[in-house]
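Supplementary notes (optional reading)

For those who missed the lab, this is the record we used. Protein: USP domain-containing protein. Length: 1154 residues.
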Amino acid sequence: VCYFFQVMYALLMPALDPLSDKAFEFQFNFMKSGDAPVILEMLTKNNFLPSADAATKRSAYLTVLKICKLLLTVIGHVMSRVTEDPQSSPPQHIECGAPDGNLPLSPVAVLRNALHSIPSQNTEYMLRSVALKLAQGLAEQILMASSEGERARPMFLQALSRELPNMSTVRAVIRLAWASSSGNLQLLNASPEELHRMHDHRTATRLPDTEDVLVCKEALEVLTITLVLNPKCLEALVKDKMWHTFIIDLLLLCKNRSVRMAAAEQFLLISTWCSASQQPLQFCITLLFTVLGTTVVEHAAGSHEYFQLNYAFMSSCPLPNAETLLNAEINWLKMVRENVKTTGDTQVDEAVLEGHLGIAKELLSFMPPDKKYEIGSEDKRPEPINLVRELVEDFIFPASRLMLHLQRTGELCADQAVPVCSTPLTTNAAFDLLVGLCVACAPNMRLLVHMLTDMFYSDRDEPLEEWDYLPPVGPRPQKGFVGLKNAGATCYMNSVLQQLYMVESIRVGILASEGAAVDLNEDFSGEERLEGEGNMETNENECNDEKCGAEESRKEYNIGILKQVQAIFGHLAYSKLQYYVPRGLWRHFKLQGEPVNLREQQDAVEFFMSLVESIDEALKALGQEQIMGKILGGSYSDQKICKGCPHRYSKEEPFSVISVDIRNHSTLLDSLEQYVKGELLEGADAYHCDKCNKKVVTVKRLCVKKLPPILAIQLKRFEYDFERVCAIKFNDYFEFPRDLDMDPYTAKLEGEMIDCDYDEISKDICTKYQLSGIVVHSGQASGGHYYSYILHRHTDGTSKWYKFDDGEVSECKMDDDEEIKTQCFGGEYMGEVFDHMLKRLSYRRQKRWWNAYMLFYTRLDVEENSLIKSLNELSLSDTQLGTMKMPPAIERSVRKQNIKFMHNRNQFSAEYFQFVRKLVSCNSAPLIRQHNSEKLNSETEELLMLSCQLASRFLFHTGFHTKKTLRGAATEWYDVLCHHLRSSKPVRSWFAHNMLFKHPHRFCEYLLMCPSTEVRSAFMKIIVFLAHFSLQDGPCPPPMIDAPLILLDPHATLSDHLLHAVLLLLHKEVADHGRHLPHFFTLFHMYASLGINEKTQLLKLNVPATFMLVALDEGPGPAIKYQYPELTKLHQVVSQLIRCCDVSHKCQSSQMSQ
C-alpha cells in the first residue's frame, strides 16, 4: 500500500516536469474521476494499515498528506474561480499581512486572499503552479456543466457548501500532527490528554526523528488549507479546549525546533487568513498571554518561536487592552531589575527576558506619543516610571553609569556593574524597546540622546585617533577563565601562575592575606604604558633598582612579590577581560637577585621555586601562615642504615618539587622507584658511623617522609652540555599516570623503621593522588614556549580540562588517553615532511618537541583537609555578591578596570552600532509624517535635530574610525545622516557649524588623511550633499574657524563657506597628503555635475584658476610632495567649468584682419 501511494504521488507530481502535458493528463483525470475524496477518508479511518509497522505507516501517511495538500489546493482554486464575489472587485495579489478588519470581506474574497499565501510561495511553488493549471480546466468544465466533469461535480459541490473537508478531517489532521510531533505516531487515536502527556518533559519518552518531523510539518500545512476551505471548523475549534492544548504543545512544549517553527508559521497563517473577522487572531493573542507567566517559564529553552508568533499576532491586530498589558510588562521588567540589584542575577531565563522586552516593544506601537512620554521620561508624577533611564542605566549600560560617576567625582560607587541584559539577544531586545520609546516622542529622544552623549561623546571623552579600530582585548568567556599576557618570553611565569591560581586553597589563602597591598590608590590594572610595552626589557627593571637603590631589603622584595601575586589572582578571579597584564610582577620579579629580561626565556621550575619561597617568606614576615609550604611542601627522609653495626640515622629535608630523571626510564613509576632505591656504601665510600667512630658498610636511602596536599614533580628534560657549552633538551618518551599512589615511595616502606620517623609514619595519611595540572614546554632548550593544562573541578562534581596558553584559555580533551599521549608524553611520531630531492611529501619519523615538564598531582583527601576548610570559612567573610575576601586596594583596582573595560566595550559592540543606526533612522521625516501633519512642526524639527546630533557625534567621535566589520558600510551611514540634513535648514546649520567649522581639522582628516577609501567617499558625499541643499538657505555669517582666510562676503551662503573651507586645504594640507588627492578633486567634480547653480558658485569662488595654479605647482600652497599625484579629476573640473563660461571676448581670430 505504501508503494502504491508513492507511485501515485510520483505520477501526480513527477520530479522531472510536473507541468508537462503527460503529467497534466494524469492529474486532470485524477481530479475529475470523483474518487479523490477517498484520499481524505484515509486520514479519518481508524483501520488505516492496521498491520503495518511504525516506519511503513509513517511513510504512508507522509505520502497521503502530500496528495491531500495537492487535492485541497486544487479544490480551493476551483472554488475561487467558480464562485462570484458579491463585492465585485477582482482578486488582487496580496504578499503579506492580514485582511483589513475595517472592511468586511466576503467568504470568496477571504478564500482568494488566503490562496495567495497558502501553500507557501517559497517552498511550494511547483505545487501552486500545478494547482492553478488544473483549476483553470476543472472550473471551465464545472461552469459549462460538461459531462466530463460530472463525476467530480459532487466533490466540488460539497466543497462549495463547506462540507469538504469536514470537521472529522480537520480533527484527524490535528491528531496526526500532534502524535508525530512527539514521535509517537502509534498514539494517533489516543485521547487529547494522552497526546498532551507525551509532550510533558516529565513523562515524554522519546524525541521525534526526521521522518516524524516531516509528517508533522506536512500535516500542519494540510491543516491550514482545510481551515481555509472550511472556516466554520476554525470557529468551532476556537471554543474547543483540545485546540488550545494542541497550539501550546506544538508551539512551546515540543522538543524539536523545526516543528515549533513550522507550527508558528502555520498558526499565523490560520489566524490571519482563514476568517473574515479578527476573532481567531484575538483568541490566539489571549491564549498566548495566558501561559506567559507559567508554561513559558517552565519551557523557556523552547520559547523563541512562541514569542516570535506573539509579536506577529500583535502587529496584525489592534489590542483593546494594550495599555493594561504594557503596564504588566513594565512591572515585570522592574521586578527583574530589582532581582539583579539584590542578588546579582535576573533569576529568569535569557530567552524569557528577551521575549518580555520584545512584547513590551510591540505593545508600545499601540501607544500615542503622550503615553510613551509618560512611560519613558516623565518625572513629575508621584511614582515616575522612567523606563528610558532604567533601560540605559540598569539593563544595558550600568558600567557606563558607574564610569560617568567616576569621571565626575573620582569616586568608585559601591554598586556592582551587573547589566540585566548580558547576552547579545537580550541587549538587542532592550535596544529595540528604547527605539520604540523614541519613535515620534521628542522628550524620550531628548533624554536618551543626552544620556548617550554624556556617557560616550562629551568633552571629557577624547575622539578616536586610530583608524580601523577594534577593541584590542576581548571579554572573558562566559563561565570561563582569564588568561595572562605574554611580554615576549614570560610564558614560563604565566603557566606556573595559572597552575597555582587553580589550586583553590592557594588562591583563597593568598588573596585573604593582609598587610601587603595597603595603598588604596595603588593601580594594579596593568594598563599604563601600553604603547611602550614592546620595549619593556631589562632596562626598566634597572631603572626601578636605581630608584630604590640598596634600600630595598629582601623582606620588602618578598612582600612586593606577594602583593603582585595577589593582584594577579584577584584579576584572574574577577576580571571581565580576556586576559590580565601582570606588569607589576614583570617589574618587580628577580631571579637569583637579578632582574629578568622579559624577552629571555627562563626555567619554569626555577621560577616556581623562587616564587614559592618569596611568598612564604613574605607571609612569615607579615606574621601569617605560610600557605605555600602547607600546600606544596613535603619532606624527604635521608636514611643511612649501617650494616656493620646496629645504628640508624635519618635526616629530614624539605622539598616543594620532586625532580625525576626521564632518561633510561619510560614511565614515572619506574623513575620514582629508581629515585628511592637504596645505594650500598662500602670500601672507600663506606659511611663513618659517629657512634662507633669508624667506617661501616651502609645502605643509603632517600624516600618521601611527608606528602604534600599538592605534589609537584619536575621531569628533568634539560641538561647543560659542557662540551657544546649550551643547554640541551631531551624529548624522550615518558608517560605518567592519571592516578598515582605514592605509598611505595614513602619512608614506611622504603627502609627499616627508624625511631625518629615513627610519629610521622604511624599517622594514617592518604597517599593517593590524581593528576590535576601539566606544564608543557614546546621547543628547544635555547628557546620555546610554556603553556599549561589544568583540570578544573566544578561544584556539581564534574571536571573538565582547560588549556592555558598565555592570553588564550580554551577547553581541551586531555581526559582522552590518546590526546594526553600526543600532547604530553614526547617521543616520536610519523609526520609528513616535504622531500626536496623527490619533490613530494613523504612520511618520516620525527621527535615530538612538545612534552610535559612539570606535573601537579592533587591528593584525594585534599577537599577534606582542615586547612582548606578553614580558608574557605575565612573567604566567606567580607564578601559582596560572591566576591571572596581580598585586599581592598586590589578589589578596587579589579572593579575599576572592569568598569572601564565594560564601558569601552559597550560603545564598540555590534549591538550598539545597530542600535544607533535604528535610533537615528526611526524619526526620519517620512516616518514622522505618519504620526504628524505634512508640515514639519517644532517637535518634528527637534526629533530631526536630535537624530542628526547623535548620528554626527557617533560617527565623528568613534564610528568612522572603527573597522568595517563593526561599522558596516560607510555609505549606509551617509544615507542615514543625509535624511536629516535634507529635511531641515536648522539641522544643516547645526551640523556644519558644530561638526565641521568648529573642528576644521576634520576636512583634512576625512578627505586626505583617512586610509579608508570608503570613509573618504562617504565624507566627500556628505560635503557635496550639504553644500547642495544649503545653497538656497540664504546668507550665513562667517563661521568662527581658525583659518588664514575667511570668506567675508555678506551674501555668502552656508554652502559658500563650506566649499571655501575645503578650498583652504590647498594652502598646506593638500601638499602634505598627495596620496588621496582624487577624492579631494572628485568632491568638486561631483558638485559641479549637480547643476548650473553649482557651477556658477564654483566659478565665483575662482575654482578653475586656483586649480590651474595647483596643477602648475604655482600655488596657492606649496608644491605637492607626492611623487605621482593623480590630477585627472582636477583637469575634469577645470574643463567642466571652463565650458560653462562665455570666453568669446578672450578669443582671437587667426586672421589678422578680423
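If you only remember one thing from this example: The two ends are 106 Å apart (CA to CA).
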